[in-house]
Amino acid sequence: MIVLSVPFVYVWAYRVPSQSAERFRRLYGPEGAWVQLFRQASGYLDTHLYRDLNDRDRYMTIDRWETEEAFRSFRARFAEEFEQLDGEGRDLTLEETPLGEFGSAT
User: How many CA atoms lie less than 13 Å away from 8 in the CB half-sphere?
Assistant: First the structure.
């Protein structure tokens, strides 16, 4: 049996006003600027963007990395680019909440 696990996951929740929703989805979606930046780093796996089914202004992103070290290395190497994109995202949201950093439970 093959068991696949993702050792490091970074999760955020966002509150996005309806007038910014389309731009937000483009920025944070599967081909958005965040994913394009993440793909420049080794150890990046993928990003998932979810929209709350009961609260249409609420979104969640899950960024998956091979290791916590890969994520930390990315943050150090791309700090300036990260801050620039983060500023763009803040302009589109009412609220950004880090939900946590998670490792594999198995």
Answer: 11
Q: Report CA dihedral (69, 76, 20, 93) to the nearest 10 degrees.
A: 80
Summarize pLDDT for 42-64 with one digit per residue, the tens.
Answer: 999 999 999 999 999 999 999 99
Cα angle, residue 48 at apex, residues 85 and 67 outer, rounded to 5°: 80
pLDDT over 60 (residue 4): no
- Please state whether the predicted TM-score (pTM) of the whole model is above 0.70: yes
Class of CATH domain 10-103:
alpha beta
Q: At what angle do helices 68-77 and 79-92 cross, to 10 degrees?
A: 90
**Which residue ranges make up each domain of the chain?**
10-103
Q: Give, in order, the Cα–Cα distances in Å from 37 to each of 57, 62, 66.
A: 25, 15, 16
